[in-house]
Structures are given as C-alpha cells and as structure tokens.
Amino acid sequence: MLSKVVDEISETLTAVIKGTDNVLTALRGAVKNQLSGSLKDVGDLTSGAMGVVSDTVGGALKSASDLGTSLVDATKEIVVGALDAVSEAGGSVISAGRNAVSGAIIAAADIGGDVGKVAVSAVEGVVEVAGKLGKDTAEATREAVLGAVKAADDVGSETAQSVKDALLGAASLPRDVVEKVIKGSNKA
Asked: Which superkingdom, per the lineage (predicted)?
C-alpha cells in the first residue's frame, strides 16, 4: 500500500538517523529538514504540498519501524516535525495536520502497527503544534480526527473501528469534538 515515494523517504531518513543516540529527536529533526526541502520544491503550499506531508510522515513512520523504534512514540515526534516545517514555510498547519495524521494511519496499517494508538499519538501531535502556534485547537483536533477516520475507513472497517475506539478513549483529546466527528456531525 505504501508508495515508492514513501519507501524512498523512509530509506533516506533511516540512513540519516541510523546510529544516533536519540532516535526520536533525530527523527523529528530529519522529518522537519526533509519536508522543508520538499515544500520549497513544491512551491505552492496548497493541495500538492499536502500530499508531500502525508508521504513524508508515512516514510518517517516506516523508517521508525525499520530502526526498531516504538511507532507510538515516534508518531508524535514525526507529526510535530512535519508541522513545524509546514508552519515555517507559511502553510496551513491545520490542513497539514489532517494529512499528516492520514499518512501516519496508512503507514501504521501497512507496517502492522497499532493503528489506534498511532492515531491518538498523531492527533496529539497536531493539537500540540496548533496550541504552540496559537491556532484553534478544537479545529485542529476536528481536522486531525477527520483525517484519521477517513484514512482508517480507506484501510478497512476493522481498522476504522480500532481508530474510532482509540480516539474516543483518549483522555488527552476533547471527547466532545472527537464524538462529533465520529458521529458524522462534521462532514469531511
């Protein structure tokens, strides 16, 4: 399911990070640097850039798996690094957050990781960056959850249920916002 681009990103990041003392910190920095360069190449920070965000997050998650790092721990670092790059490039952190979460879900499902826990970690990363930048965290949560639910639905019904259950059970996320998205009161 992962694309050739995602595989190439994974190989690049694995080569950069392999042998570092703190893999999570190195992963965050490598994702930020990789995405910053890619966003400069894309130029237009609209829909084209959002696919780059999803691919970069997916590649980074695959790299974390290849390095033997916990996918759940790595996911938040990867998402934060990606959104920092988007913010510095002047893009929409909220739109990018939705795509980052989607990329994480698809990669985790392909790798065989705990997609529910990865979803929670990814959404937490989006909310963290949105809050740090003074963005509306409820909107960031809504968009991130929409990205998670849509990506999980695309993977399959079992994955979708796992992601929904995990997001609803996460004490770190605003339950009312998560419930509204999952119940469909906010359409994608």
From this structure: Bacteria
